[in-house]
Amino acid sequence: MSCPHVGSANLAKPSPTDNVYREDCTQCFDSIDDPAGLDVCLKCFNGGCAGDRNHAKLHATSRNHPLVLNIRRTRKIIERNEPPLKMSKLAIAAETESDRYDTTLTVKCLDCGIDNLDKEDATIAPVIDAVMKANTFSRKEEVKAWEQELTTCEHILTMQQGEPRKIESQHLGHCSKCDLNENLWLCLECGNLGCGRAQFGGVSGNSHGLAHATETKHGVAVKLGSITPEGTADVYCYNCDEERIDDNLGAHLANWGIILAEREKTEKSLTEMQIEQNLRWEFSMTTEDGKELTPVFGPGLTGLKNLGNSCYLASILQCLYDLPSFQQRYYGDKLGSLPSVSDPAEDLETQLRKLGDGLLSGRYSKSDSDVFASEHTPNVPHQKGLQPSMFKHLMGRGHEEFSTMRQQDAFELLQHLIKLITRSKHPAELGDPTQPMRFVMEQRLQCLNCKKVRYSSNEQDSVFIDVPMEKLPPEEEGQEPKYKPVTLKQCLDNLTASEVVELTCAGCGSKDGFTKRQGFKTFPDVLVVNARKMAVVNWVPVKIDVPVIVDDEPFELDEYLSKGQQPDEEALPEDESAKSNVPAFVPNAEALAMLEAMGFPRVRGEKALHATGNSDANAAMEWLFGHMDDPDIDVPLDLSGSSGGAASGGAGAADPEKLAMLESMGLSGPRAVKALKETGGDVERAIEWLFSHPDDDGADAVEEAPAANEGPKKEAGSSELPAKFQLQSIVCHKGTSIHAGHYVAFIRKKLSEDETSWVLFNDEKVVKVVDVEEMKKTAYVYFFKRV
Q1: Three-class SS state of 706
Q2: What is the mean pLDDT of residues 144-162?
Q3: Which residues in 177-191 are b (16+ Cβ under 10 Å) and which e?
Q4: What pLDDT, in 10s, does the model give residues 560-598?
Q5: Which three-class secondary structure state does DSSP give residue 743?
Q6: Confidence band (pLDDT; 50, 70, 90) for 656?
Q7: Which of 212, 253, 265, 785 is the least buried, fewest Cβ under 10 Å from its Cβ?
Q8: 200 assigned to a ligand binding site
Q9: 208 annotated among ligand-binding-site residues
Q10: DSSP strands (E only) in 113-196
Q11: At what angle do helices 410-423 and 311-320 cross, to 10 degrees?
């Protein structure tokens, strides 16, 4: 049957820069695997479901793009008498999509209602062929996941090697400083052989290669055991502190008499070891007696497929969508129709609602077991899992870390998502779903000499707790160290304990210092706690698994409520002369020396100590790792506030104390006012906003500043007592670095009227858990709900 739209549609094949959405709908998770299939627009390549929701029809009507390619995929039935081979991330299996699926293609016109246009039409056929060959969204992500992108660097390109000489084979057998005969790194500049850092899994190392690089400034080294005849090897630049590629490795090795063709690879590469390490961090999917944990299905019990190092994203999303505020904001009848946008995949509201429907509706929570196992290979059917490819791309766009396929810090992702969602527009009747996480911390400073006090407060959406680390005596020689368990109360006691900081009093001029203490001015409805368990081992920050004991039953936090200024306390002066006399900051000499010994410049060390209370080098180091990319990281600390006065015009509409904090960093005027307005008064996010909007002069913030008679903004959280909380969900991590290993989520779920149980969300696998105690001890992020 002919269609008038075919000739007039002016169809063109997708270019390499076009996104082709031919796996799942851009507005829901219905996909090519559903009975109705997916309709791919032949004009703009949007993917729309063809089933009862009919998002394809909505797209066709709104964009006047009636021609679509319907793709339906069905799984081939496979009889298997042996378990499938374990997939290795080192190579993509040769099995193709056509080996696993049957695919049916149909061309339709949604305007004319024709369901079977001629696929061989000269106008349509080349477009169909190009659509089916084009890389999809998720395919692009997978390719990045399997390959670690390495580049060369200036230190390799400009490297000056010493006089050519042949290093005799007997001198290639062990480190020049010790007897280690594995994990050996050859300095390409001078030919020195040094052992590497100790690696997870029993690979020894005393860091003599690093010591040589630090002493001589020779930055480039190659791992001897990783060299192959084909010219590949682990090349590391100590100056960049990154793995690199040396395009002239053969020539550089020949300078030391090492011929590539004669080499044989004898050790695992860094990439292989990282993959092996990640594979080891499996969370048990069996009970103590070896039985597989029971999968659970239903609303709120839908898994997320791992896109390749995306478990950090999946675990945080599961915990967020377990919160009532997220469920009400992004799922349900109150929301009305989806936003009418030209590209749904690029719209944050659409993608957040797509996730809400996918995770909460139960529509996609069903077993996916088309493989028939024999009686000798029992198979527990799990879910296929939703692919959050579009959301991952959207939330990471423009971000240096989250736009990559590398493993990331789950807590940093949480903060990033909160920032994105807070900046979005929200219907007045629904509000910002992150608001229940917000609360106010109050800090009290008291001069040791004049005893006068100053109180300041800061709105937050989470709290860090430093976990005390005390090694236990090893039970046997060579055993991995274990650490003494601590309670959550111990960590909170430390958080709110008094400490002495070195500041000069603005009131009396004393340099004796201040006592500093912080407490909760208000409590949130959802308390997010990040447990920091980091230590420096061989100059490398390493995550330490210290068990933190958390009660399963509700507990009170009343004792941590800040009492505020008492009647018998005298406040430090707030007049202009006192404001101009900014307390002088004297960095902790011992902590600063430790940071400098680690290689951090003095300016950065001073900034980190100022930001973290001037007491602990470890806390300062963590702050530095999180702020390495700050544009002003190397600008000397300036607390004078001389770079700008009070913001004009609308300055009175912003919190003067927060404005003063921004001014002390050289961030002032209408831009500072707008930054605070755009971020809900959060100083930290205001700073990020300012650096990410360098061209915004903030003029509209002055014009739109609210009238003074509107009154102050309502304080986040509540100070009502009792403040009783119960653990609701946890993000757990296994691995020695928060940027590697594996993340999962454990969430307390009501499975029926009579049963509430902990449920493990391990990517697409969702199972009921019998015992969660071990996981509670090694959690990384806790979500407590107020009860």
Answers
A1: coil
A2: 76
A3: beebebbbbbbbbeb
A4: 999 999 999 999 886 443 344 445 567 887 788 888 777
A5: strand
A6: low
A7: 265
A8: yes
A9: yes
A10: 114-117, 184-187, 193-195
A11: 50
What single string gives the DSSP state of each residue in 636-669? Answer: PP--S-TT--PPSSGGGGS-HHHHHHHHTTT--H
- The residues facing 117 across adjacent strands are 107
- Please tell me whether residue 200 adopts helix, strand or coil conformation: coil
Check the annotation: does 198 bind a ligand.
Answer: yes
Q: pLDDT at position 86, please?
A: 39
Annotated ligand binding at 178? The verdict is yes
C-alpha torsion angle, residues 393, 396, 401, 404 (rounded to 10): 10
The DSSP call for residue 567 is T
Choice between 82 and 486, residue whose per-residue pLDDT is larger: 486
The percent of residues above 70 in pLDDT, for the chain, comes to 78
pLDDT for 691 equals 64
Alpha-carbon gap, residue 136 to 143, rounded angstroms: 11
Q: Which is higher by pLDDT, 623 or 390?
A: 390
Bridge partner list, 39? 48, 70
Q: Return d(Cα 257, Cα 758) in angstroms, integer.
A: 61
* Residue 3 marked as a ligand binder: no
Which phi and psi angles does 549 have, rounded to 5°?
A: -85, 125
Six-digit token string for 447: 């001069």
Residues 239 and 155 sit within 8 Å (Cβ to Cβ): yes
Confirm or deny that 491 is annotated as ligand binding: no
User: How many residues are given for the chain?
Assistant: 787
- For 523-546, letters b (16+ CB in 10 Å) and e give bbbbbbbbbbbbeeeeeebebebb
- Lowest-confidence pick of 438-442, 484-488, 524-528, 667-671: 667-671
Q: Beta-strand (E) ranges in 32-144?
A: 38-41, 47-49, 67-75, 78-80, 101-109, 114-117
What is the DSSP code (8-state) at residue 238? Answer: T
Q: Is 45 annotated as a binding residue?
A: no
Q: Is the pLDDT of residue 278 over 70?
A: no
**SS3 for 147-171, per residue?**
CCCCCCCHHHHCCCCCCCCCCCHHH
Q: Residue 199, annotated ligand binder? A: yes
Active site residues: 311, 742
State pLDDT tens for residues 74-91.
988 766 555 444 333 333
pLDDT of residue 203: 67
Residues 196, 51: Cα–Cα separation, whole Å: 57
Report the C-alpha gap between 51 and 71 in whole angstroms: 12
Token pair listed for 12: 């063109």
728, amino acid identity:
Q
Q: Residues 372-380: what's their mean pLDDT?
A: 45
**Any residues with CB less than 8 A from the CB of 747 and at least 6 apart, and which?**
318, 319, 322, 728, 729, 758, 759, 761
pLDDT at residue 710, rounded to an integer: 45
Omega cis (within 30) before 436: no
Q: Is 197 one of the annotated binding-site residues?
A: yes
Q: Which residue has the higher pLDDT, 686 or 68?
A: 68
The reply to whether 391 sits in an annotated binding site is: no
Report the C-alpha gap between 260 and 227 in whole angstroms. 8
Q: Extract the tokens encoding 725.
A: 């909380």
CA distance readout (Å), 29 to 165, 236, 344, 385: 62, 42, 13, 10
Q: What angle do CA 301, 303, 306 make, to 5 degrees?
A: 165
β-bridge mates for residue 197, sequence order: 206
| Residue 312 counted as an annotated binding residue | no
Q: Is the separation of the CB atoms in 16 and 27 below 8 Å? A: no
**Scanning the structure block, which residue is given the tokens 């690089």?**
213
> Rounded to an integer, what distance in angstroms lies between the CA atom of residue 108 and that of residue 645?
65
What does the block give as tokens for 587? 């960095």
Q: Is the pLDDT of residue 670 over 60?
A: yes
